[in-house]
Amino acid sequence: MGWTERQKSMLQEMGIRLWAPVVAEPAIPKAEAAAEAPKTPAPTVDAVASPPLPATVPSDERSTAIATMPWPVLREAVAACTACSLCQSRRQTVFGVGHPNAHWMIVGEAPGEQEDLKGEPFVGAAGHLLDNMLRALNLTREQAPPERQVYIANTLKCRPPRNRNPEAEELARCEPFLVRQIELIRPRLILAMGRFAVHSLLRSSEPIGKLRGRVHRYQGVPLVVTYHPAYLLRNLADKSRAWDDLCLAAQTADAAVPRAG
Ligand code: URA
Fold first, then answer.
1. The CATH number of the domain covering residues in 8-34+54-255
2. Whole-structure pTM over 0.90, yes or no?
3. Residue 32's CB: how many other CB atoms inside 10 A?
């Protein structure tokens, strides 16, 4: 495998030795090739087509309305959402960032303090590790073509107070937003990070250790499970497993057939 110096240093930062076993030899050459590709600006999002969602609309009507929202309306609906009590403690909602046609979609848990301050997912210590993991695969959250610029979102768009675990009701109320983001992006791969993302997308309560290492499907989209970067910061021994997961994800994204638009 031909690592660039930059990738080597990122892998080192992740605590991954280059002789660690990997499963996705074909993934890297394509990712490297993508880096050579001319940069195209991210497409602009759809024009506003419907008014923002009223706060009190019943839950199934609410999901149906969200399911047809174009990007700007969806963003506005998230920003104005009062469907659960997290709206009372948040500073702002954290919608998501990245390419609207990204091949990779990363799904985390919920905003923490830094994300609540900045309005962007994964900007704290866990986000730093996530960025380095992505960089090792020649992926980025910064402006780049859709095969390199990922989209990052969370299962919850609001910070739970004191970073407590998300509650089932909060996850249920927020889920239609994530479902719509996935539908609009139509990624080739979803990387679900951590137990709340994994459990809510896969409707499973199995531990990550049992779900990782194979390709699942979420509404037809291949989904790979891995540890949450915040967990990896505390459990260094699992970083090489996370790297294996990323290699499986890269291999899967490369093999995925683009979904018809
Ligand atoms: N952890 C997450 O799952 N998401 C964030 O945005 C930040 C930390």
1. 3.40.470.10
2. no
3. 15
Count the neighbouring beta carbons within 10 Å of the beta carbon of residue 218.
17
Closest CA to 147 of 134, 157, 156: 134
Residue 8, pLDDT score: 60
- For the chain, the structural domain boundaries read 8-34+54-255
Ligand 1 pocket test target in 115, 117, 141, 155 with most atoms within 8 Å of CB: 115
What pLDDT does residue 257 have?
Answer: 74
| Cβ–ligand 1 contact at 121 (below 6 Å) | yes
- Res 60: pLDDT: 87
The predicted-structure confidence for 2-55, as pLDDT tens digits, reads as follows 556 655 655 565 555 444 433 333 332 333 333 333 333 443 333 344 555 665
Tell me if 151 CB under 6 Å of ligand 1: no
Instruction: Determine the Cα–Cα distance for residues 119 and 33; give it in Å rounded to an integer.
Output: 32
Residue 62: its pLDDT value, please?
96
**How far apart, in whole angstroms, are the C-alpha atoms of residue 189 and residue 216?**
10
Atom of ligand 1 nearest to the CA of 126: 8
> Which residue's CA lies nearest to atom 7 of ligand 1?
122
DSSP string computed for 31-72: HHHHHHSPP-PPPPPPPP-SPPPPTT--HHHHHHHHTT--HH
Closest ligand 1 atom to residue 121 Cα is 6
Between the CA of 37 and the centroid of ligand 1 the distance, in Å, is 30
Q: Mean pLDDT for the chain?
A: 85
User: 184: Cβ–Cβ under 8 A, 6 or more apart, which residues?
Assistant: 70, 71, 74, 100
